[in-house]
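User: Can you write out an input/output pair for a complex, sequences first and structure second?

Assistant: Here is one pair. Inputs:
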Amino acid sequence: MKRAFSMPGFAIGFCMAIVFVAAALLSFFWTPYATDGVDIVNKLRPPAAGNWFGTDQYGRDILSMLMVGARTSIAVAVVAVGIGMGLGVPLGLAAAAQKGSLIDEILMRGNDLVFAFPALLIAILITAVFGPSAVNAIIAIGIFNIPVFARLSRGAALSLWTRDFVLSARVAGKGALRISVEHILPNITNLLIVQGTIQFSLGILAEAALSYIGLGAQPPMPSWGRMLADSQTMISFAPHLALFPGAAIVLTVLGLNLMGDALRDLFDPKINRER
Amino acid sequence: MGLLQIKNLNLSIGDTQILQDISLQAEAGKIVAIIGESGSGKSMTAYCVNRLLPRGANVSGQVMFDGQDMLQLPEPALCDIRGADIGMVFQEPMTALNPVQTIGAQVAETVLIHGAAQKSEALKIARETLNRVGLPAAEFPLSRYPHELSGGQRQRVVIAMAIALRPKLLIADEPTTALDVTTQAQILGLLKKLVVEDGMALLLISHDLGVVADIADTIAIMRRGKVVESGPVKQVFAEMNHPYTRALFKASNHVPDRAAKAQETPILQVSGLVRDYILPRKSLFGAPPKLRAVNDVGFSIKRGESLGLVGESGCGKSTLTRAILGLDAVQAGRIEIDGRAVTAGEKVPRELRRKMQVVFQDPYGSFNPRHKVMRLVAEPFHLLDNAPTGSARHQAVEKALTEVGMLAADADKYIHEFSGGQRQRIAIARALIIKPELIILDEAVSALDVSIRAQILDLLAGLSDRLGLSYLFISHDLSVVRAITDRVMVMKSGKIIETGDTETVFTAPQHPYTKALIAAAPVLEKTP
Amino acid sequence: MLIFTLKRLLSLGLSLIAASVVIFVVVEIIPGDPARLMLGINATQDAVDALRSQMGLDQGLLARYWLWVSGMLQGDFGISYTYRVPVVEMVQGRVWVSLPLALYALLLSTVIAFPIGIIAAAKRGSWADWLVMGGTQLGVAIPNFWFAMIMVNIFALKYQWFSPGGFPGWDDPALAVKALTLPAFVLALPQASILARVMRSALLDTLSEDFMRTARAKGRTAKGAMVHHALRNAMIPVLTIIGLQFSFLLAGAIIIEKVFFLPGLGSMIFTAITQRDLIVVESVVMLLVFAVILVTFLVDITYALVDPRLRRRP
């Protein structure tokens, strides 16, 4: 961990990401203004001392909306990554442990199949059935994450299974499950952390896109994507409506990606070897 | 005045001094060998000659090649010399060729880069060169891709690329280390022939004294970035002025003292063992083809005996090991461990598995990097029904570690803190921890430098004497097998083709393949 | 190569069947009766039953699946519940907006990414490399619909270089291409950023391969070795990404259409969802999935062309 913070990319990215996490947590207890009331008198105020980021068409404070919106974005991304890891990693490990078996074959074909449905199409299908909501957006993004993690962990596990230390464990009489947990999983955690960071940032982007087209979070739940959708018709005379939510997305995603890249460099033995 | 004269060469990469005050020379039509263990700087010396150095390399001194100082030439001039006047052959033929280009294109490339001929003419030269290195047109058309060739054949292609323009100097960096003994002998013969035919100089880099003893004219022995001794081969071998030379020579021929006597009762008996692999389908329909990796193999190991198993890569040695260890199912045959039989289709029960342990070749890949030595060495306890716990477990691990010459305190370290030789000791400790009766040593000393190898062989001999262990010693290196085994088996294409007392097999081999194998193996004469 | 192609074709067919089953099952579990939906709440039960049998809804699950699939194979995608017109007619005009947009973006992404990625790899550690790495990092982080809104605001509303939206149709191809240029560019930028980064790292990986050293030992200059040996080998991971990108671009296209008011599949599918016009949703999703699977197939074939090792492997 210490080494990670000595990398400028990680430190900068971490600071950027932590600001948004802090804002989201803070919003549970306090926001500068309430986000559920309508205050028509103060509508469409440009950024000023009272409202740092201005107000929207209903007079709500943009900063407060962003703070609450961060909650939605982060929650959706966290749960979606959780679904992807929670299901994808065990599946990938199981497939690698039984390479070439029927389970492996079914799993890999299933993966290919999910890859044929971009997250948006999954979301479209799900919302067509259950109606649009933040939960359905989570499920859609989560389903899309499963094959990402399954494929990653299968590939990494396969190369570990050929290593002599796994052979030693087999000579010691250990079974596939035990080897997967004791020997394979600890050696792919680095990869999973890096990929998790990347999928987290992709999740934030996907949530924003789904909310923007109306398939994600529904009113009155504030969401960065919906704020952008609402701002679209007013962008020429109230650009701040589009500017701040967009910037929030960019900075969060950028921060996460910087962290992911730095971690990848840190963990990559090839780069370490170069010295 | 020689073709190549290296004077007072120094090299550092970053803050690390790699080479110190190296002086060497090479003459046309002669072979100069540079010998050293890993980290001695022998390869870097070669890369200084054609200036293919890694980033951040800082080099000083003089490398006079054909009247020019290579260290002073600008990059474009170096590019003109590389390939045309200085050819190079590398250690790893499997990765030295571009996988997406045909061998013809890659050999012709050498000619085309230097503008020596037009495309059609270049392809003709490529053809002739491939013929010269023993890849005739009928079997090896120019349109072949590298992945369609074996390691030895690929190394021939690399040599063809290096000599297509008949360079004045050929640098060969461990050209046979990745190859089997018989292939090694062929490649060395080819290099020797090319030196004579083209009158070029050959700079041959190797870790193996035996390899160069026969073909080199002069030899330089390197250690820790310095040349400790150099001169004509005969003279160096006869005088051995430097203690390191003597140590290296001794280690290369090391035979450990062994007192153990084999008993009559067998610990392992194998009969009629068959192991098939199912290959990928060649066509959409029909049964997939099978490869019989182990074909009707039978042998036995007595208590306290050390049995050798030699064979070239792909002969089925490793598959046999895995079958004996109960890791893979076999299709037919019987394995009898300590008097209890296991037939094909049956799983080897735990109480039998704990009588066998294994030590693998790669000291870097055989340990989970995330566990401490304590946990690594204790792993085989899993096979015991009531394995010691707590302090008893600690003591057992510490005892095993001291048994192999490590410290008890090493148990709390991670594996990356140890050198290759130390890791191999830890691997032996792991094998010893549950007091097995048979240890399978699968190329266990092949990745080690000769001096370390000698120490590990002594350790193994001592352990067998003290603990009455039996060994199945698997190796491609004949000299090692001869040094440590009582009996030896020769394996080829899945079958055991010859078995007998080690000395008998080595002095009077019966099977033609055994004869070829022994003839091909480099032998270092015990002081001429 | 023939066996390889046949195998890929077989897996293409299997993927399509699997995808159609998934889509069909998902849409099947939706509660509600389409016939009732079409006729409205006041229709008599007899009229609803008549329509049900006309649409084949009274048949079993398998029969309906077969009806749907065999219909699609003959170019019959069914009849929209809401508009009572064949889905094919509705889709026809729109597909020629969404598909060209995605392909145009794929082209732009590749054209932008290749030179940038190559330069960054060739001049690793230089200011150019830093600029590319920084710029692409930003490019990946920007949501493209937001970027689109800003671009429209600047280039269409302020400077009026492009029209802010709408599509004139393919009667005048030049005008059509012009109308698609800004959307395609916006779509392409994040993907180009990803592709450039992949290109760079693939090249750097290849540069450390042994055969690159062999090429240098033959007398190739650093640049010559890069052009003659590194590029083609680096294409293998790059192709994978290009294949994946098409599906992202297709999905992205239906979002971007909303910003530019393009009459593509996007607006149609969103309207269909709100109107619960499931046959339209079903057919359009199947169409998009078909496009993605087809591109995956083409990428697989290109793999084998680039890498001779794959041609033999079954």
